[in-house]
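Reply to dn_fold:

You asked what the input looked like. This is it:
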Amino acid sequence: MRTILSGLGLVLVLVGAVAAQVNAPSVFTYTFGQGNGEGKSAASKLENQIGIGLLNQFPCVDQMDFDSAVSILDLERKRQLLTGEPNDDLLQNIASSIGATYLIVIKTIPMGDGKTFISIKVLDTRTGRAVANRVGDPASGNALLDVVNSLTNQILQDLASLLKGRCTPRWSGTITLEYKYETKEEKTETFPGGDKSKNTRSYISLWRTENFIHAMLNSREGEDPNRAKAVVVHRFTHRDEHIVNENEAAWCRPKAGNSFWKRLSNRQSDIGDEQGEARSNETVWVNIDKTNGTFTISVKYPAVTTTSHREITATGIACFDAKPSSAISNGEGSPESGAYTIEGIEKISGEIDPKNPDVLVGHKTTGDKTSGIHTVTWNLRLLKPKSSR
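and this is what came back:
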């Protein structure tokens, strides 16, 4: 559940606990440890223990890992989250954008005497006010572990008043669809040059296409458990590069002087980029056939409007005063991307694990390097009250 970025241990947990209210509360946890490894380890341990405690105490709890939740952020918010140390206002904005009601911020700070100071607070993203604030005494070694355990118990008690309540069964989790295609062609031609050496011309062409769709389920209380709400993000990127390098002999004649053979080089490049992103709220259907022991998941995803950028350059080739050239064009969409950027519905089928029918986990990979690799990954869990287990 932990990702290390820019020297910070970052963890994103989305917890949805269905309470006796229309909008169920959810929690976004941002954890980072500064300084030595002991501080980072303590922050990670505290985050993990809180996650386990929430799962044990509240059966209707969603916990999403960092990568899954970050996947639904727009590019600007993602950049802000992954660079530097976000302040509380930015974290609240991000937490609210992914549907979190509460923001938990865990910080560890190294002290000069080798001890670590830990603080943890819970903010209501709707009001910006702190609803819980706990700190531990600076400690190290086993004493630091005692502080982590104490803070875990304290914050779980604080969260209990916010998250307690009854809930109805609902599906939680993520679905990811990925298509990747990449190919590279290289060729070199040689032929006699006028200076009795060889002229060369090399060609390099690269095509890379990625289509990414990510759905994060976020159903609320009272809804049909087989009909889950989800935030769905659809991203498309494509790049093609075509480069020609030439080295040839030319018979050059200066204005005043004798003619001579000269080796001339030229580089021509044609590079195009296309990208786009769309985000929408969709319905994910989860149908369970207990008779046959099978399931079907259907997820709809939005269309993407892309922008394109192409630049063509050449260093120029001439005996004297070669002049480089360039041309740039921008636009929207392309015939090549149309098959990937349209909206659609993906259907996933499989067999239920009879020992764990409330968990649907798996992945399927189709295609090859020639046509591209298509990977579907799903990780869903049916959240139910303890009385239903």
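The CA atoms of residues 97 and 345 lie 24 Å apart.
Hope that clears it up.
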